[in-house]
Amino acid sequence: MTRPHLWIRAEARPTEQRVPIVPADARRLIEDGFTVTVEESPTRVISLAEYVEAGCAVAPRGSWVDAPEGAVVVGIKELPEDPDDLAHTHVFFAHAYKGQEGADRVLDRFRRGGGELLDVEYLTVDGKRVVAFGFWAGYVGAALAVLRHRGLLTGGVSPMSREELDAMLQQGPALASGAPAGATAEPERALVIGSQGRSGTGAMAALAVAGCALTRWDRADTEVIDKNALLAHDIMVNCVASDRPREPFLATADVDVPRRLRTVADVTCDVTSEANLLPFNTAITTWEEPVRAFGSVGNPLEVIAIDNLPSLLPRESSESFSAELTPLLPDLADRQGPWAASLEWFRRHLR
Length: 351
Ligand SMILES: NC(=O)c1ccc[n+]([C@@H]2O[C@H](COP(=O)([O-])OP(=O)(O)OC[C@H]3O[C@@H](n4cnc5c(N)ncnc54)[C@H](O)[C@@H]3O)[C@@H](O)[C@H]2O)c1
Prior knowledge:
It comes from Ornithinimicrobium pratense. The protein is of the alpha/beta class.
């Protein structure tokens, strides 16, 4: 069976520490007959030595442009601006099929160079995505909401390890001011909407580590939205994959009513979409300024809507992404299964 040469490129973004294939999986692929080359990278969370130990060849950063014909270049986020023409097969998240900014230029680069895009977002089986970062997105989003609620998130955020994050979560809920000595703090009430999905599962896991009292809602629980029940939580995490407009979970009018709810993590980040289920917020927040406040000073509703949450836990995100991608790679040479589905999207958009 043909095994293509996999070329793990260095990520172009200076803040991106993730990698699509981790050394343990690279080793398995090499044992299975693949050749794996890994580029040097100043940002990757995993050291080059671990790849060398696994049997990978090493190449300079950005040398994929001269990779042998037939090599498949694997990355996570966007390619660098150069070169103009893309001649290889590339596996990454290109965000090129929904009219996104810069999408035409990406497709033009493939058109001119004769290369091929196998976008990870479109690797599907029976229409369902098979490689995604959802779990860790939900985990980090929920964790940041808890830390904010406890007064432990006051500035920007940057990539960290799960151990660091969990250690902060395990400090437990803050005691109310004026509480008597020896009193124990009540766990925060936290609601996850979309709790059965990938990010919802991750959110539930982080909230459990934090010791919160959990409520989980999925589709059946939001057919009729019990607004009073929703507002009686301290923390809400929105993990819903929503593709059409419907009754919002929280409307602008809900921001100014008396409510217990104070902190929202919008993992979904559909902030500019007509499917936005939290329409009082129309912009993402950032690593530098993760929190935006709505409502009055005495009754704020604080929202965290960071759209690159998995990059904040680069090692765990890389490991789970690699675990999902690696079993698909034996079908890559023949463009079978999910590869055929992704290739079909590319061909349709290249016309
Ligand atoms: N912020 C980030 O960094 C980041 C990273 C990854 C994914 N995401 C986004 O998070 C969202 C969820 O992704 P996922 O991988 O967890 O999706 P998923 O398909 O695994 O899960 C979505 C869940 O939402 C539920 N759901 C759908 N409509 C609902 C409704 N009206 N009420 C209640 N539940 C409903 C589904 O039943 C499912 O359980 C997507 O919009 C995705 O783009 C954001």
